[in-house]
Amino acid sequence: MNEERRRLYVVMLVSLFFLVYLFAAATPLRSEFVLDPRWVVDILGEATTRSGNENLVPFRLGDRFGYIGENGSLAASMRLPSSGVSFEGKADDDSPSDVALSDTAFAVYSSDYMRIEAKAPDGSTLFLSDLPGIPYFSNDRRFLVSPGMDAIGEYRSDGYLAWNYEFPAIITAFEATREFTVAGLMNGMVEGVDRNGARNFSFETGGSRIPVIYGLAVSGSGDAIALVCGLDRQRFIYLERKGGDFRVAHHRYLDSSYRSPVAIRFSADGRFAYFAQPEGISVFDAKKRSFGSVPFVSTNFDVLTEGGKGFVILSSSIPEGRMIICVDPPGRVIFSHLLPSGISFVAMRGESLYLGIDDRVARLDFKEE
Length: 369
Fold this sequence. Notes:
Blueprint lengths: L2 H23 L7 E10 L13 E6 L2 E6 L4 E6 L4 E2 L5 E2 L4 E5 L4 E5 L5 E4 L5 E5 L4 E5 L2 E5 L5 E5 L5 E6 L4 E6 L3 E6 L3 E6 L4 E6 L5 E9 L5 E8 L3 E8 L2 E9 L10 E3 L5 E6 L2 E6 L4 E5 L5 E7 L5 E7 L2 E8 L3 E7 L4 E7 L2 E6 L2 E9 L1
Antiparallel strand pairs: 1-33, 2-3, 3-4, 5-6, 7-8, 9-10, 11-12, 12-13, 13-14, 15-16, 16-17, 17-18, 19-20, 20-21, 21-22, 23-24, 24-25, 25-26, 27-28, 28-29, 29-30, 31-32, 32-33
């Protein structure tokens, strides 16, 4: 891409967030803010050596993935293989490759769940497994989910398998904290596993004709679990830790009848649980035990951040594309903006927003004025 096109990307991004500022300024805020463009990086360029204390942001743009430093350095950029690899080590065009990606690890794998090698951003091997499975990384922990989706193993920092836990039914939702892992199952059970691979709690949802877990989220503190579960009728359940166990603190029957995974996310402070519903993104306030709604219909969204300014940034996929929504919790929309066509990567770290389009990643910072 020539210099003229590079400038065009910067102008486009600045113009986008100038519009966002106009939306925001039209609504009384706790304080005014703008988004300040910091840099644009070409992910096809050569990787540079990063300083040891620089945090990395993982990205995925089409068939490329890698890591960018907060200062705009390109730490790594790799292309996914055009085909997967069979168990015999041969190319398999019917088994396309994918990548599990986190701040500290990545692993390329295929739908045939072949031999897995997990690596650090610098390319060093974290663990190597000859067992088939799907890699999953969370909170600096490294897991391998069995092809049958009914068992999970965790690998230690030295690359050896620490434990393997077999569940009594197929896993339909899963999340890991630093303290434990939680799996929602097809039979409606929720089971927690501690860092030694032993079960530390179990909960049966019940209350529906078909008791399956469609969505599960764990608060940052690990003291609350939010669920969307069951069919005929579907329910939202909020569990709180009491002593060493989790108990129902609140529940509500829903009008939805989802038969596929449901997006559900906690805010950073754990007070609000956001979950998909046909009429919009529902919000449960754990402190007030009340519900609100963000009026954007989306079955695929993420809570990007909850900053010190008190607002929550949501990234939502809608039929028209990807939308950024700024919410004053629980559900008052401060502004919303449909991102330009082609933006396929959105992430936040602290007060910085990262956007990816084609072969470019840009950083913009929230600033008070």
